[in-house]
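#random but structural
TW: two for the price of one
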Amino acid sequence: MDGLSLSVGGRTLCQRPVFGTHRTAQTSQCALPMWEPRQPIPGRRRDRFRPPHCPYEECPAHLAVSHYRAIHKGSYRRKRDPWRPIPRFRCETCRRTFSREAFATSYFLKRPELLLPVANLLVSGCANRQIARHLGCAPSTVTRLSVRLGQHAHRFLELSIARLAGIGEPVVLDHFETFVRSQQERLGIATAVGQTSWFVYALQGAGYLRLRGRSRRKRALKRQPTSPPPGSVVDSTQRILECVLRRSPGGLDLISDDHPAYRVVVRRLGSSIRHQVHANPDRSPGGDATRVRARDRALFAVDLLHKLLRHSQAHHRRETIAFGRKRASALGRAALFAVWRNMIKLVSERRPTRLTPAMRIELTSRPWTWVDVCARRLFERRIKDLSI
C-alpha cells in the first residue's frame, strides 16, 4: 500500500497510508508561505499598532494594500479595563475616526471575554442555555456571539482557500442532513472534504422538501414552514464544485455517492471533473460486503466529518430539543465547526503525532488555538477581493 509522506520544515512528520488508490496522493501546496498566527489585536501595544486600512467599507481606502495613511487621534479607556488606553485614529481619505478595537474580532462587544469560551463550547456539544449557565450570561448573548462567530468562520474558510495554490487530492462530496425549527424544515449542508488530508474545503446550504407524514399538531401550527426552492440541492452542489474548481487548475477528482444531483452538476461543468461514483449498497445481512467496504473506504473522510458534526453540536443530534431557528445560524455553526476541524482539532487524538488537516496540506506548521483563529477581524469585502 502506498503512503503519504508529510513534512514540515524539512523533516518528515509521519507517513499515512492512502486508502482507495494505488498511487501516491498529492497534497495541496500553499500559494503563500506557511500561515503563521498573528498577535491578537487587543494585546498589541498602542505605540506599535498601525492600522493597515480603513475599517469602513464605504471608504476608498478600505481595500488598500499598502501606503495607507491614518493619523493618531487620542485614546480612550474602558470601565472594565481602565489601565489600558485604546488608541484612536483618523483616516486621511474619508476623515472618519476609528479605534484599534475596530480591527479586533470582539469589536463593539460589552463582554469580549466571552467570545473565545463560547466558540470552544459551541463545538463541544453544548446548547445555548447550557453555555449561558456555565458562563453566567444571558442565552441571548450566546446567540448573538454564535452569529458573529459563524460570520467570522465563513470568512476564515474563504481566506484559507484563497491561500492555496491548488488542490492536489481527490475531494469527497456529500450532503449532511439536519433540521431547523423542530424538525419542520429539512436542511442539507454540502461538504467538500479532502480524501487524504480530511481538510474541509467548502460548505454550502440547501433546503430539502418537507417530509410527507406530519402529525396533527404540526399541521395545526399557525406558521407553516416555507418550502425550499426547486433544485436547491443541485444549486448548492454546483456552487460548492465551482468553488473547489477555482483551486483545481488541472481538473478535479470527485468522489461521491449516487445522488442524482451530483451527476447533473458534473455534466454541466464539463470534462474538468473526473467523477467516481460509489452507490450506497444494501447493508442487510444478505448484502454484498465487498461493495460496502469499497464505498466506506472511498467516502470515509466525509462520513467521519458528519459523525463528528452530529456528535459535537447539540442541534444536529437525532433526538434533541436544541434545534436551530434559522438556516443561516445552522450554516454559521457548521462553518465554525469546519474551522475547528481544519485548524485546531488533531487528526488523531490517540496517536502522539500532533497533526491537523491544515498541516497535512502544508497550510500551517503547527496546530492553532481559538486565540489564533480570532486574532483579528476579517472584513468581507477584503476577503472576497482576495478570493476572486
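TW: number two ↓
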Amino acid sequence: MMPHYMYDRHFYKILTVTTRSRLAIVRVNDQQGEWAGTSMRQEPKDRAMLELEHGFRVVDVHTQLQPDHDTTARGPTTTPGQLERELHQAGIVRAVVFPDVNPGEKYVAANNGVARRSVDRPFVAFARINGSRTLETSSTSRLRNVVTRRQSYHTTPADIEQYAYDDRFHGFVLEPAADGIPDDAVLEQLEAVGLPLIVSGGVDAPPASLVEPILQRDFPVIVAHFGGYPLDRTLMHDMIDRLEHLDNCYLDTSVVRYRDVLERALLEHPDRVFFGSGAPACHPDVAIMEILTLDVSEDKLTRAFSKNACRVIDALSPQFE
C-alpha cells in the first residue's frame, strides 16, 4: 500500500498513513501556543515535532550520550532530555547508551558520567572499553602486538569485573579502529562475566579481522552497522555470511541504510538482528521508518525491534520499564 498524504493548511498538519504506522508532523499554532490536532507533550513555539505510532514495542541498542561537561565528542551531541524526547517521539521505550570514543583516554569517568545521566530515564548504560592491541591486518600489526603492553589508560580485567558487578552497567562497547583490541586477560574476564559487547565494524575494522580476537569468544557480541561502516555494502554482506558460523554473534541496524542488506539479514537470520538508531547522529524517527518500510513479515519486525535484543540484554525487557 502506498503512503497516503493529507494536508490541512489551517493547522499546518501533515499525516502520512502506511500499512504499519502513522506519521504525524504537526506545526505549532503561533497564536495559541498549542499543538494543532494532537495531545503530544508541550514543546516551545515554532518547533515542529515528529511522532510515530507504529504499534511495535521498540528498544534501541545503539545511542550515544555524553557525560557532564564533556568537550571531547567527535560527533553530534545531545542532552539526556533531548535524547529521551526523540526516543519517545519515535516510539522507542528503552535504549542502550554509551559515551563517544576518545582515543588515548581512560573511559572510567566518561562511563560513570553516562551512568549518572541515565538515572530515572529509559536508558541502559554500557561501559566503553579499549585495549592495547591493534587489529591484525598485516605482518606489521602482528609484530606490534607481540611487543605492545597495556598502558595506564587501557581497560584492565579489574575494570571489567567492577563494571560487571556495578548494577548501573549492563554491557560493554568497543571501537577497535580507534581504541584497539583488549589483551587476552581482559577478553578472558569478559568471558567470565558474560555481558554483551557491542563492537563497531567497518572499513577500518572489517569482519574478517574481528573473527579471531572477538567474534569467536564465549560472550554475546553485537556487531554495529552490520560490520560495514560507513555504508560498505560488501562488508555488510560479508558479515551476514559469517553469522552461520558464529553462534554468539548479532548485528545492529545503525547506519545501515541499504534495504536489500536489511531485508536479507532479517530473512536469513531473523533472530540475529537488533534495531539500533545511531542517535544522535541519526534521528530515531528516520531509523524506525527505514525498518518499517522493509518487505518482511510483521513477526520479523517484532523480533528486530524488541524480542531479539531482550533475549541478550536483560535490562531492555518490559519488566524493567
